[in-house]
UniProtKB/TrEMBL annotation, chain A:
Residues 15-180 form the Transketolase-like pyrimidine-binding domain. The lineage of its organism: Bacteria, Pseudomonadati, Bacteroidota, Cytophagia, Cytophagales. Pfam families: Transket_pyr, Transketolase_C. This is Transketolase family protein.
UniProtKB/TrEMBL annotation, chain B:
The keyword Transmembrane does not apply. PANTHER family: TRANSKETOLASE N-TERMINAL SECTION-RELATED. InterPro entries: THDP-binding (IPR029061), Transketolase_N (IPR005474). This is Transketolase. It comes from Belliella kenyensis. Coiled coil: none annotated.
Amino acid sequence: MDKTLDLKFTYTEKKDTRSGFGDGLLEAGRKNPNVVGLCADLIGSLKMGAFQKEFPERFFQVGIAEANMIGLAAGMTINGKIPFTGTFANFSTGRVYDQIRQSVAYSDKNVKICASHAGLTLGEDGATHQILEDVGMMKMLPHMTVINPCDYNQTKAATMAIAEYEGPVYLRFGRPSWPIFTPADQKFEIGKAWKMIEGKDVTIFATGHLVWEAVVAEAMLREEGISAEVINIHTIKPLDEEAILESVKKTGCAVSAEEHQLNGGLGDSIAQTLIRNNPAPLEYVGVNDSFGESGTPTELMEKYGLNAENIVKAAKAAIARK
Amino acid sequence: MEKQPLEQLTKISSQVRRDILRMVHAVQSGHPGASLGCTEFFVALYFNQMKHDNKFNMDGANEDLFFLSNGHISPVWYAVLARSGYFSPEEMTTFRKLDSRLQGHPATEEGLPGIRIASGSLGQGLSVATGAAQAKKIDGDDRTVYVLMGDGEQQEGQVWEAAMYAAHHKVDNLIATIDFNRQQIDGPTKEVMDLKDLKAKWEAFGWEVIETKQGNDMAAVLEGLEKAKALTGKGKPVLNLLHTEMGFGVDFMVGTHKWHGIAPSDEQLANALGQLEETLGDY
Ligand SMILES: Cc1ncc(C[n+]2csc(CCOP(=O)(O)OP(=O)(O)O)c2C)c(N)n1
Ligand SMILES: [Mg+2]
């Protein structure tokens, strides 16, 4: 399907976003000697091996003990270290929520919580590991910045950018091999939405893996004579309200697309912004109050309604409500 | 269920190992290593030690109960549940596929008979098993609650919260087993996060500790479980330190963390199946 469509962004290579994290961490470590890494028995899964190899004195294996890892990281910030913790997204959030809340967010410590295998695209491991609530939990915490980049290049750029930002950050990425469609030399600006495609009939606000699906959906809509604007919301908090309002002022309606529960996700944040400033029709693409299950990433994205076809449907529904 | 004799248990184990490998191979995902290492333990429990009903009642009243804390070794549990009649062995073809009851990690959501709680996030099973054991005591139900944990899993703090609690509350109808294979994802436990003297740690927490030194020898596993059972009802929870080899039964998988969570290729599967007799008929 991708082949026959006239896509505004294309790719020649696919890679997992977690590798973008691993490579970005290595670069950040080279640039700044205060960057340290911690991992809870998932070095290979988080792609932290290269950092460990190059900076063994700045890398700490904590074993299967995520709560301890968050506390250690908070402690290391006290004299200026910049700790990057690595584990799966569910063990990075729900498992250690109170540790993050008290020792990192409330205490406003410079910890970077780096979370892999988020969402349904984790695939066969099933619902215990496919967290779909993490963005909600993290964005509710005062002081916390929440970032969900869309491909390998953007994840690498985001990883390097958060090393230079002072304050707690939740960085979410995933496991599957995914199109690399954003430039390698991009500058990552925390909190600044990226208008990727101009349009006038509807705005698609997408985050994470769903940005690619939004790019595909835009081409599908264009074939039907519908002009969609695609905005990449890599930073869910702080939300770029200005960019959102400006776009919806023009298009008059919107779709949010994310690999997350509708409750507490990006769509919720956008809805708050629209309701307060410009109540326009908004349709949601996300998981509707359900846990995931085992399956291949493609099957799951289809079953739970998270692919380009569903974004197209949502866009038409939003336009119809104008 | 009827108690199966030793030679039958050994035969079942061979079939269970084939089932594990074929399930994981078919979807090219899942955790064969510790599944193979814990095969004797599961077979001994379900075909000899536990009083249980394969018609499956969630409340398990007047039955022995089993909880799997290290949920990633679901393949061995599914194989043993299927082979002991909880569901048809055919259903193993659905392992980890869309719309299956055989989820990557054990779950109650799809209603698979034999599963009483979801697991997969490590460190939680001992608390659940302890609660279930106390519920039995409240009801005057004198059956035993079993739980299996990983050795890497011992690094989770919650394990020790539960350990302290169970001893304090004299939960003596509880037999916890540790799959002591000395491996976890990133390597040997000694290198990742040294567990040091586990036996001394559990004893210090107030548990009765036994060691099963040959956890892949059916006679030794049975003996260990009998011994553990004999120690219940005496005011202390019982810990069974089960020495196993990850990947046991397949020469190229044995003793390494490399097979913790990867699937064999076609050739590797053929080689492995060549080492394991088909005793009950492949599904
Ligand atoms: C809370 C939590 N953290 C991390 C993981 C990821 N994980 C799955 S299995 C595993 C290693 C477990 O080691 P062990 O208990 O020794 O099991 P074995 O490798 O021997 O099967 C890890 C870290 C998890 N499932 N749950
Ligand atoms: Mg182990």
